[in-house]
UniProtKB/TrEMBL annotation:
This is Bifunctional inhibitor/plant lipid transfer protein/seed storage helical domain-containing protein. Keywords: Signal. Residues 1-23 form the signal peptide. Residues 19-111 form the Bifunctional inhibitor/plant lipid transfer protein/seed storage helical domain. It comes from Digitaria exilis.
């Protein structure tokens, strides 16, 4: 079983801490939401890139990637907006995104990435 690096563990812990703080403190500010979204996208790209990029074969995601996908599932509008961006459309295979999310037990919302 793959172990989290200290950087990966820190990133996941930070995301969980931010989510808990947001739940307790009421509606987040737009700046906070933008920063949180940026962190979610960065974590997904860092931990799952090899499984969703256009080049390369379709492969089962790692448990580390799945944990990141499951944390990101709390931010569907952020992730879906990114998947619809020109940058994502250039780099990411939506077929692989659906495969990875399915393997990780997460459902992609209808219209996501359009």
């Amino acid at each position: 079983m793959a172990q989290l690096s200290s950087t990966g563990l820190l990133a996941v812990s930070l995301l969980l801490l931010l989510a808990a703080a947001a739940a307790v403190s009421g509606p987040p500010s737009p700046q906070y939401e933008a920063l949180e979204c940026q962190n979610v996208i960065h974590a997904l790209w860092r931990n799952c890139k090899q499984y969703v990029q256009k080049k390369g074969p379709k492969q089962k995601p790692s448990s580390h990637c799945c944990r990141t996908v499951q944390v990101a599932d709390a931010h569907p509008s952020c992730v879906c907006d990114y998947l619809g961006s020109p940058d994502a459309k250039e780099k990411i295979s939506m077929e692989k995104v659906f495969y990875v999310t399915n393997q990780c037990g997460v459902t992609v919302p209808a219209g996501c990435g359009e």
